[in-house]
Amino acid sequence: MRISGMKKRESNSVINILYCGDRNIEDGLIISVLSLLRNVTEELNIMVMTLSYERILPVTTETVQYLDRLVKEKNPANRVSLINATEQFLKQVPTANMETRFTPCCMLRLYADQIPGMPERVLYLDNDVVCRRDFSDFYHQEMADEELAGVLDYYGSWFFRRNLFRRDYLNSGVLLLNMKRIRKTGLFARCRSLCETKKMFMPDQSALNKLAEHKKICRRRYNDQRRLHEDTVLQHFSTTFRFFPRVRTLTVKPWEVERVHSVLKLHEYDDLLAEYISVKAGMQNAAKETDCPAV
User: Fold this and answer.
1) For the whole model, what pTM was predicted?
2) Which residues contact 262 (CB under 8 A, 6 or more apart)?
3) Using one digit for the tens of pLDDT, what is the confidence trace for 29-50?
4) Are 175 and 148 contacting, i.e. CB atoms less than 8 angstroms apart?
5) What phi, psi does 80 have (nearest 5°)?
6) What angle do CA 60, 148, 201 make, to 5 degrees?
7) Which residues pair with 216 in a beta bridge?
8) CA-to-CA distance for 75 and 131, rounded, in angstroms?
């Protein structure tokens, strides 16, 4: 484990992005994808892993198809695809953590090694991550033996660590995955087994931090969890703590546009959020037209 060194951007390469979740991620997915289009010049291969299980509704085909058409407007080689991982999930349900506050979809990324055709290098993003700048140096960094690269969890790295004298607990909202190495070491397979048998706080994140032997710690700007900084590349709208006038948690997501303005006092993404509102309206209109009976 070491602080990452970056290498020069590769030309004519593909950036593989992975999102995971159910239908509830769709608003964040739209914003995050739009933010990628604004900042990434390389070809984008965006994969959305979803699940249909009991009361969990999968991300809709219509949403993914709409986004696929949208990203192709910038570059015809761009694409957005939907991966239904229900079959893989049912073969190894994370039984011990099914009743926690974290939905099964939070653990869905741990099945990525079982998806046929999954690229060898993938950048996993939570749906509440907004891209602010080009991150090619982060994506193309050297990863030989490392299974994953990420940023220290802002809070958890102080309390959950394997090494008493070194912070090493990563936030799982932005993870660069070396899938070839992960398959070789069986990291995800071991994480799934742990989630199946042991109840944990933040199950997938805990399992990854507990079992990953080879990981890189990258700079804060590639997963800014607390607040926006001048050098922020990827901003993660995760839950934070506030201490005045009383200790409390604060959660504001990027699709909560009014709260982004009123609570966070943040206007950095006004153009992006206006585009999101327009795109969502277009998707809703397209859905209405599809539902209209033939004349």
Assistant:
1) 0.90
2) none
3) 999 999 999 999 999 999 999 9
4) yes
5) -125, 125
6) 70
7) 2, 149
8) 18
